[in-house]
Amino acid sequence: MGYHEMFGFTYEPNPFDIDISALRPRFRKAITVVHPDRWAGRDEGKEQLIQSLSTTLNNANRTLADPLQRALYILKREGVITDGENIVDDPELIMDVMESREAIENAETQEEVNQIRKENQEKVEESVHEISKLVAVKDWSGVLTAATKLKYLRGIDDAAREWPRSLHDH
Amino acid sequence: MFRSAISKTVLNAAPRASRVTARPLLARGYHEKVISHYEKPRNVGSLPKNDIDVGTGLVGAPACGDVMKLQIRVDENGVISDVKFKTFGCGSAIASSSYMTERVKGLSLEDAEKIKNTEIAKELCLPPVKLHCSSNVGRRCHSLCDS
To answer: ipTM value of the model?
Structure first.
């Protein structure tokens, strides 16, 4: 059973567009059924199954809740990626990402970092919209490119949030 | 155009799942050499990118969202006289970059091109899952030598 189906979402027509506000209550409902506490003390065989089901539900919830994880999950489900893909980067994207990361590193005030973070957030939102449109037309290689870009943008947001501490980078 | 032999196994290694901090580096069984290059990386910084004898290479690691910059200054004899790198990424990427810069300093472009990704991984004793980080560094170095 796929993640969407677990929470009563339909995979078609657009598996990327799910009603996020509905996810939390559905997750809560599903998890109470298989919560380990509820089954504690019952027969041994069931305990393992319950553990495995609740872990799966947690993973499913986490994956669907985050746009990037959701996009990657869809790509896996469509057989577009398995693991460790040979993705070709767009040199301009890498340059922009590098500049943003260096700007954060060299920033001297919180305001500067907030500005970078704000501009980056706009790009993140654009990227999420793009993924939605690409999934709608099943342009899987387009989705892969867009999800990769989103990954890099996330890195920028993480670095901005950590500032002035660095994210293990030099 | 010369391209380093990037082994499929290296590229197909499982992508890094989470960021690395210094303590988990030890917990995950990283070799001392990696930790040394991570805690005290050599040649961190930038060269003036508009200098005519400076070459700049950028590479991303899409699996983990890391980006790396490698710059070399080449003298009139085709020897790499200075190297600087900046890496925003995981410990292995940093360690690989640091090691690579030490390795290529003073080498001719031809000799630098010959460095294999596997050498980096072996020298730093990187666990297989981290090979893709070092391959990115190696790849960048080679295409930089080409240009």
So the answer is: 0.70
